[in-house]
Amino acid sequence: MEEYQKVASLSDIPPGKMITVAGIDRVEICIINVDGKCFAVSNICTHKGAPLNRGTIKGKYLVCPWHKANFRIEDCKAFWPAERSLRKFDVKVDQDSVYIKIPSNGKTSQSHD
Ligand code: FES
Q1: Secondary structure (3-state) at 109
Q2: For the segment 67-96, what is each residue's pLDDT rounded down to a tens digit?
Q3: Percent of the chain with pLDDT over 70
Q4: Exposed e or buried b for every residue in 24-47, given b needs 16+ CB within 10 A?
Q5: How far away, in angstroms, is 111 Cα from ligand 1 center?
Q6: What is the pLDDT of residues 20-63, one digit of tens each?
Q7: 3-state secondary structure of 53
């Protein structure tokens, strides 16, 4: 059974910013606030594995720090040189709490960059 787990406070992620949550399904996850809406994506670039939390957010895109691949945050679509979309996680926001859906055997621990 899948469930949502609180991973952050919305007030910690202002629009245009991201935080990193570690340890879910052994995948680090970036929680990104785009114009007040939160998205959760894998922290690993699908091109050569760069940590995307070291990249930049440009409008609705997350830009990889190594070779500048762009990922459209809303649907995780990749643009050159990356070819594969990012893994995406379901996010739910309730008042100031941000939750992500985790598998029943998943674990979370929180860290901020
Ligand atoms: S590792 Fe991200 S674009 Fe190459």
Answers
A1: strand
A2: 999 999 999 999 999 999 999 999 999 999
A3: 86
A4: beeebbbbbbbeeebbbbbbbbbb
A5: 23
A6: 987 666 778 999 999 999 999 999 999 999 999 999 999 999 99
A7: helix
Task: State which ligand 1 atom lies nearest to the alpha carbon of 49.
Answer: 1
Q: Can you read off the two tokens belonging to residue 89?
A: 């996680």
45 lines ligand 1 (CB under 6 A): yes
The per-residue pLDDT for 111 is 44
Indicate which atom in ligand 1 lies nearest the CA of residue 52: 2
Whether 100 lines ligand 1, by a CB cut-off of 6 Å, is no
Ligand 1 site-directed mutation target among 30, 61, 66, most atoms within 8 Å of CB: 66
Show the domains of the chain with their CATH numbers. Answer: 3-106 (2.102.10.10)
Expressed in angstroms and rounded, the spacing between residue 61 Cα and the centre of ligand 1 is: 14
CA distance 68 to 18: 17
